Write a sequence for this structure.
């Protein structure tokens, strides 16, 4: 089974703390993770697929009570591999939110250097994308943009520059 973004989000939340399907739905309803659907029609089938594929398991707490989802070894391994994957230019171009979701889940990785490597790859991918956009703006096609188009591209460029500065600053924080 190829994991989806929702699958990784669910595994990451369960890895941080075993919880029920309802509790997971509440996270999507009440936090910035609201970009994912909190409907039972998406969450519960996704959880069922993750259990069937062996990424999660459902079991009752030691003292009894409502069953909670727990991450399996397979789920933990898949999550750790995803978190350690270097950030690509495609991710920077198409899904920076997904990059930041990965970064947030790095909180649960207890290995020196993993966060630094992630941030370095993020900064590098951002730098490459910034160079591409700057070159485009200097090209005949970029110079032919109308005022609105050019300003829209410059807005995106400034956003990428801000993210690159954040990555550089965050790397310094994790050196200490």
């Amino acid at each position: 089974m190829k994991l989806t973004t929702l699958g990784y989000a669910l595994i990451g939340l369960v890895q941080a703390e075993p919880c029920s399907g309802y509790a997971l739905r509440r996270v999507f309803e009440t936090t910035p993770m609201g970009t994912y659907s909190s409907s039972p029609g998406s969450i519960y089938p996704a959880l069922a697929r993750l259990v069937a594929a062996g990424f999660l398991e459902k079991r009752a707490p030691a003292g009894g009570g409502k069953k909670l989802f727990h991450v399996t070894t397979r789920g933990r391994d898949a999550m750790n591999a995803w978190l350690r994957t270097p950030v690509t230019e495609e991710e920077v171009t198409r899904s920076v939110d997904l990059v930041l979701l990965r970064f947030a889940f790095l909180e649960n990785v207890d290995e020196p250097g993993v966060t630094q490597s992630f941030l370095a790859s993020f900064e590098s991918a951002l730098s490459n994308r910034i160079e591409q956009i700057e070159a485009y703006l200097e090209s005949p096609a970029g110079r032919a943009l109308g005022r609105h188009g050019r300003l829209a591209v410059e807005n995106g460029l400034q956003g990428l520059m801000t993210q690159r500065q954040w990555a550089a600053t965050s790397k310094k924080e994790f050196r200490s």
